[in-house]
Write a structure and sequence with these properties.
The structure is a single chain. This protein is an alpha/beta fold. The protein is built from eleven helices and eleven strands. Strands 8-7-6-9-10-11 form a six-stranded parallel β-sheet, sandwiched between helices. The chain has a three-stranded parallel β-sheet with strand order 3-4-5, with helices on one face.
Length: 287
Amino acid sequence: MGPCAAIRRAHDTARITLLTTGPYVEFAQASGYFDEIWTHRRPRWWQVGAWLALKKQLDGGRFYRVYDLQTSDRSSFYYRLLRRPKPEWSGIAAGCALPHANPRRDFMHTIERQREQLKMAGIDDVPLPHFDWIESGTDGFGLPERFVMLVPGGSAGRPGKRWSVTGFVALAERLLARDLVPVLLGAADEADRNAQIAAACPGAVNLTGKTSILDIARLARRAAGAVGNDNGPMHLIAAAGSPSLVLYSHESDPALCAQRGPDVEILRREFLDTLTVDEVEAAMRLR
């Protein structure tokens, strides 16, 4: 969102379109950075009709410049789809007009990498993400004044990035003893894990599968703090201003992907199953 704010400021009279997927639409609309938002389903390689439809949509946009902030093989392929003459393209697509020409870009934190990419495209001032445009106190979940967000999930294919269910249960119980209500967040595919925690700690509020991205940001602006594994929601929560503790194992490197925000603590162990609840409670950030 920092680069998006910078792009909006640098092109204040332009019509800006965001290409994204469905879950991000409400959040992007609320930001005010975009005039139009397109969604698509990320077609598989063999879905020729879907690729042709995407090409037609991209060509029809008549874009004079594109900022590829994902810089994946997929997003770079979109450059190849565009008809000639191609728009100015900022990214890593072969032959693009505004390449991020740093051979060590993969060893940079995402925020620094995107800042450098935009600087090479002529945009020097890229702020950290800020969410002053999000209304606070309108989450609609009826939560008490003092609560702490717990985000126990993470990539299902990388279980080593997840602290144990028993660890989160013990932490939730300690929060309740301090008159802090634990609020569990997660996507639908994390429902079983979070349900185990909620069942073992009945005082917790389980919002798994009930929150949009915008909801999570609103909650973060109200929360006393947040504790979670290295996952997507913790990036948003930290950036939105909640005091945040993020748990890292050997499977991810904070130097490349640490959450950023005004009050973030990283607690790292080679294996998260060696991490005790005492250590987590002692490292927690609260306001």
